[in-house]
Specification:
By secondary structure, the chain is mainly β.
């Protein structure tokens, strides 16, 4: 009476048959009353096969995948953004942007933080595309160079105010070919503004520095600009949707196109959104295939 016990067992039946199987329970101690289920129904063979089958691979969540791709390791002192757009003579225009990453408290020796980045870009055969220091800046800096489609290797050396090396990194990226006659999208650019006047200045400045961060406060406004390319001078239609973290559509977003019809942009007021994680999906139909790009970001108080 002072304890409760649950007795169970696993059936040694070789093949599930979907039938009822009786159960008999016996104890050696006399004078006890035994209460138990009279038996159980075995699962059917088809159900057993379904349970034994491996779980189907679920499609990756595009918003979560984009957030993971933009995440910065806590060991890095800068965050970067690399964008590609159509250049001249068959080359692509590659833009490199860097920003200081927020350092955790107690990280001594790097109070001043990074002030410049030495960048080297070369092709698979070692052909140099860029070598030099990205211009110094208090909050962000940018440089652009030409490179043909294909793989390029980047080497970064992050320097402090006294010229000391704070961090270094090597990575390989693939430059897409945006010169094909099919509809294609360049890398979406994200600009942040705190006032309407600042937003208007960003809209009027074609070479404004995009934000490398993907975390913004509700007090900010975002301007997202994405180049759209197609065959000849044909009009290119771009559609934008706001997504939640699960990748579900929240609403359609109005898209405007500049006079040159080479870039489309949207404005997003973050005060209208709750704190959380979102994505903006750009899609452009062309040649029977819809081309898509997703920008994911986090909204903070």
């Amino acid at each position: 009476a002072s304890a409760y016990y649950l007795l169970g067992y696993s059936s040694n039946m070789a093949t599930p048959d979907g039938k009822f199987h009786p159960i008999a329970v016996k104890v050696r101690r006399p004078g006890l009353e035994i209460r138990h289920r009279p038996g159980y129904w075995a699962i059917k063979p088809a159900e057993a096969a379904r349970l034994a089958a491996p779980a189907p691979a679920s499609a990756p969540n595009p918003v979560e995948a984009a957030l993971s791709a933009s995440a910065v390791s806590r060991n890095r002192v800068i965050r970067t953004w690399i964008g590609t757009a159509r250049g001249t003579n068959g080359d692509m225009r590659v833009t490199f942007v860097w920003e200081p990453a927020l350092q955790p408290s107690g990280n001594r020796g790097q109070e001043a933080g990074p002030v410049r980045v030495a960048l080297t870009a070369s092709g698979a055969d070692g052909s140099p595309y860029f070598r030099g220091r990205v211009p110094d800046a208090g909050s962000a800096a940018m440089v652009s160079f030409s490179a043909p489609p294909g793989m390029i290797a980047l080497r970064l050396s992050i320097e402090g105010a006294r010229g000391e090396i704070l961090d270094s990194e090597a990575r390989e990226i693939t430059i897409p070919d945006l010169t094909s006659p099919r509809t294609s999208l360049g890398t979406p650019e994200v600009f942040r503004a705190r006032t309407v006047a600042e937003l208007q200045r960003l809209k009027a400045e074609p070479r404004a520095v995009p934000a490398a961060a993907r975390e913004f406060s509700r007090a900010e406004r975002l301007l997202l600009r994405v180049p759209v390319y197609g065959p000849g001078d044909a009009a290119r239609t771009l559609v934008a949707h706001l997504l939640n973290r699960a990748g579900q559509v929240i609403s359609a977003l109005p898209v405007t196109t500049d006079d040159a019809r080479t870039a489309s942009q949207i404005e997003l007021i973050l005060a209208n959104l709750a704190v959380g994680e979102y994505g903006v999906q750009f899609s452009a139909p062309g040649d029977g295939v819809e081309v898509r790009e997703i920008v994911a970001f986090r909204v903070t108080p």
